[in-house]
Each structure stands twice: as structure tokens, then as C-alpha cells.
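Hey, quick one: can you model this chain's 3D structure?
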Amino acid sequence: MPGCSTTHASNESAATLNCSEQCAQLPLLTSRRVLIAAALFAVICLGLQAWRSWVLLASYDQGIFQQVLWNSLHGHWFESTLSSQLSTNVEHAGELPSVDYERLGQHFTPTLLLFAPLLGLLGGAALPLVQVGLITAAGLVLHRLASGCLPERIANWIAYGYYGGNALIGPTLGNFTDLCQLPLAVFVLMLGLVERRTMLILLAAGLMPLIREDTGVLLVAVGFWLVVRQRDRWLLALALISWGGGWVLLCTNVLMPLFSDDNAKRFMVENFGQYLRGENSEGSNSLVVLQRMLTQPLLLLQQLVDPPGGTIRYLLGHSLPFLFLPLISLDAWLLAGPSLLGLFLAQGANNPLAITIRYTLLVVPGFALGTLFWWQRRPYLQLGPRIRLAWGAAISLSLLLTLTSNPHRSLSFLVPASVQPWVHSSPAEQWSHGAAARRALAVIPPQASVAANTSLVPLLARREVLVRFPFNTDYLDRKGRPQSVDWVAVDLDLLERYGQAFAGDWRQLRNSKRWIEQHRQVYRVQSLDDGVVVLQKEGPIHAEFEIALDQHLQQPLPANPRRRGS
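Sure thing. Here's the predicted structure for all 566 residues.
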């Protein structure tokens, strides 16, 4: 690309503008190889998602999003008893989950409603289709952008790196997340900026902060990138920064508190409580947390690099499929830096630096674009055989790491859940158990109130009342009155399998058996198939099912994994 070469750092901004103008003039370059890579990515991820769903490895979040969308379709916008169970009123104050609890107090996600009609049409299959479809489409938009600015071969390899990244595949194979919309929105916005297409800019910039209350941070990052790289567009940059940053502040400090105190009293405290100096019980907000951070520079610096090994591994894992180029790309740091800063400074039950969970989707777009712009600024470099060999090896290593990490147990047919002790069931056994669970659950009426353990939640989520067993079996109705669920469903077989190695499953197994034994007079077995037990409140007595349940309850608990580890 003659005319795009930069020989002095002081000329970089001008060069960016010239490159952007040239990109806008180049025709779309299609690549059959990239289409094949995208198709393979989509087919494999959808297949693994279908496997996870059938063998009961999809879990709580999958149920939450189904229930939120199902209730929204029926006129109860964003309501969810499953979300209510995670609220500060339930977690900290000991209250019961409420039918009319609105999830917007936990996460402000207006664009989620776009997928409600698809859930009504396709049921539970809609969410994996949306997630895989959006992330696959994002890669095609990234390639479209790269094809206009780079030689076809380099553009292709950037797309290969995107689809081959452990940090992308991991969350794609997990439960549905609203952040799956983010890569597509970022790439469409950048395509609009590079090609100077106003409608694309307005569409992507308008929707991006509405994905979730914190996604406006990426719009702020794009605005700062514009300030550094294309200073003549400072007015547009200021608009992006104001809209993205302003929406984050408006959401977290004004809109979300209208629905509940969860952002202030739970999420801010759990993620940033280390900066609040014992003020956790009172809760906080984004402005207070920011002020506390700035007044504790030593703690801030410590949190940025602690743990140093984890931080380095996280950056290496993100940059590996892009041949580590994002680590030396200023564009990558500008575009992904604010998201990385938030992750490095946070804590929580879900490790923010885990490479296979949803938070990586905040970083992947910036690293992919950083790689693109790194090559764009060096038109004199050729993608020779040695570089292609190294890049191919890096992508292969990223795929191998994905395979060995067994993200979200999606490769359970191949990779054991635990080696010591050995926990693995054959694919046929897992498939058969999934079928048995569906037969057992078929006795539950569609509108009945249910308590179910985590693995069964996604199968039962499209109803008004569903709570997680054994944590709750009661709830508050729309008049605020306590009610007990009509049905209880628990997969004792799965808990027994995983309880051998995982303390959380062991505790759920112990507590589930205790609850059933204590409530046998009220809740009676209506179905029992391969360890999946379904009980109905005041239901008819089936002697054969009661005898079979007795046999399950008499089986001794496996050894507590926590004690074995000590």
C-alpha cells in the first residue's frame, strides 16, 4: 500500500488518516479460506453447545437468560426468580427470591430484548445460535475491515487468529452471555470509522453501551484511539467518549439503583471491595470506587500487577493467536487498555483473569484490531513462509490449550472432568443420562413452580417461577407472600459423579439428600430415571418410585474432596 508507510513516529497520525482514506476506496476482498474457517468455527461450536445442552452441562446463567427473555415475551420485562436468587436481598439479607424481581438492577442490558422473539420461536436452542452466530459474524466483519487495509494473505491470517483464539473459543462454548454482542459491535464501529460510513458509526456506537452497563468503556477506548491516531476527528472522538462514558455513569449511578441495590451493595463490593476500606456493608457506586482508587495509588499499583504470573499468562493467552503482536501494538493498548485496566483492578468469585470466561470478550476486539493496525503501519513487511509457520504454530498451540482446558466441560466426551480422582463417563453414558433427565422432567406441567438443581435449570427455565435447589424451595409471589414450589427436580446421579472431585457438587449432593429426607411426607416422587428425581408437593404416592428413592438416599456420600485435598 504505497503512501501508507511511516518513517517517523511524529507522522503516525497523518499516516493513519491516509490509510483510512485508502481503505475506504478499496473494494471488498472475499476469501474462500476465511469463509471455510468461519463455517468450521460455527459448526464445531454449535455442535459442542448442543452436546453441552443435551448432557446437562449448560448451567445457571443459561437458565437466567432464558427466563428473562421468556418473562419479557409474556409482558414481565426482565423479571427472573433465578436472578433474584443472586440479589443482595437474598444473598446477604436472607430474603426469599421474588417473582417480580427485575434483572436490570444487576446488569442493564436493553439489547437483550432483540433475541426474545427468537427464544419464543426456537426455545432454548435460540441462545447458543445467537451466541455462536454473532461471534462468527464478528470475525467476518473483522476480515472485511482487514481486507480493505491489508494484503489478502495478512487479512486472512488475522481472521484465522481471531477464530483460533482460546480467549474467544472459551466463552463461545460457555453459557450465553450478553457480551457475545460486543465483538460484532466493535468491528462494525471500526469499519464505519475507517470507511467513513456515518450509518454504521451511528448504529454501532448507539447500540454498544446498551449491551451492558459497562460496555460503554469500549466506546471510550475507541474515542481515545481516535484522539491519538486521527486528531482531526476530535469532535467525533469527544462524542464517542461522552456517550460511552456518560452512559456508564448514568447506568451505574442513576438507572440501575431504580430497580435494586445489587450493583452498589453486591457487584461493586465483590469486584472492588478492596478499595473501600471496610465500607463494604454500605455499598458503593462507580464514582465512589474511582475516587477510592485514585486516593490509594500504592494499592492501585499492586492490584494492577497482582498476581504477576496470572497477569502475564492472561496477556500471553490473548495475544498468542495473533503472534503476540498486540503486546507491541500501541493500537491494541489504546483499544483494549481500559477493559484490561478494569479486569486487572477487579476481584471476584469468578476470576477476572480466567482466559475462558465471558470477560475475555471485552479484550478480544482490541487485540484483534491492534494486530490489524500493526500490520497496516508496516506495509514494507511481507508475510513470508517463516512468519506464516510461526503464526500457524501459535494458532495451533492456542487450539491445543483450548482442548486441554476443556472449557465449560464442553469436551466432556473426550476430556475427563478430573484426573485425580478420575471422573469421566463415556459419551454413550452421558447421552443416555441426558435423555433420561428429559423423560423424568416430562411430568412437570409447563406453568408449575419448580426448584431444580443447577444442571436441570436450563431445561425448566421458560416459566415464571424457578429457583435453584437445594438453596431455595420457597419464593415470594407478586403480592409478596411466601409460597413453596409445587415441584422439586434434582439430578442425584450427576451430583454423585462430580461430587467425587468437586467440593461444590459434593455439598449440593449432601444438602439435596438431607432436604429430600426431611420432606418425604410432603413431596412425593412422581418420576425417577437414572438418578434424576422429580417430586411433587402433596402428589400421589407411587410405591415403586419411593422404594427406588430409598435406595438412592441410602448410598453413602463420596469422600469430601476438600478434606482429601488437605
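One thing worth noting: Residues 1-18 have pLDDT under 50 and may be disordered.
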